Amino acid sequence: MKLIFALITGLVFGTGIAISGMMDPAKVLNFFDLAGTWDPSLAFVMGGALVITFFGYRLAWKRDAPLFGGCFQVPTGTDIDMKLVGGSALFGIGWGIAGFCPGAAIPALGTGRWEVALFLVAVVAGFYVRRLLSPAGSAKAAR
Amino acid sequence: MMFETAFTPFQSLGGGALIGLGAVLLMLGLGRIFGATGIMSGLVFFENREELSWRVALVIGMILGPVLLFAITGSMPALTIPVSPAMIVIGGVIVGLGASLGSGCTSGHGVCGLSRLSIRSLVAVPTFMATAAITVFLIRHVFGG
User: Fold this and answer.
1) Which residues span the domain enclosing A42?
2) Does residue B84 belong to the interface with chain A, where contact is any CB pair within 8 Å?
3) Chain A, chain B: beta-carbon pairs less than 8 Å apart
4) Cβ atoms of B53 and A41 closer than 8 Å
């Protein structure tokens, strides 16, 4: 049951990515191109997602535990360090170059376009570069 | 290369709401943050074996998203790639490096982190939004790519 639930959850997310325009690099890059062919659509994607998540999370947390057991695991760190700022800055640069981000590219694999697979392989290569830089701190990659 | 893309406020809002619903479901059912970077690197590096099976199921579901849409509407979602394969590779490596260093990407920091009012995400999101916009400006309007 838990796995079917996870599959449906992924399907809801992936369908949302596909409908929203988030998986279309032309649209993503236009969102950032304020000085050119600007398309503000992605602000609506973020807005829609944030409203649902803001209230939905708080409803979910009214329960003592998740439906399928365990506990709610939420990152609790509050450190603002160079890794966070530098890593995020780099992430934005890469996003601006390629037009894909991981959460959009995974569903985009479903379209069968080879460029998407190429992007995801490159992302994995980036994960490895990160591990080469600091093998000790590699256990917790991301949330 | 620059392409005009149509402004799609309603579709984007609806799609965004579904993205949010996916994030809420993962929290409600499994108690986890919907961060694509964490989920992907967890799969690639076989981190945490007991987390592996739901991550695989989740990713399969994500990939089936556009397929479901195709089954319902008869057309695949638009996917126009205005950059060269070299830029996809360079951008991808930088995305992977940056997202793992910064502990998150658009889904983890952007959707899940901001809605939790996480201070780290409140710093991360404006940072990557700004560098993405600067990068696009430089590529399109300064270097004329």
Assistant:
1) 2-138
2) no
3) 532
4) no
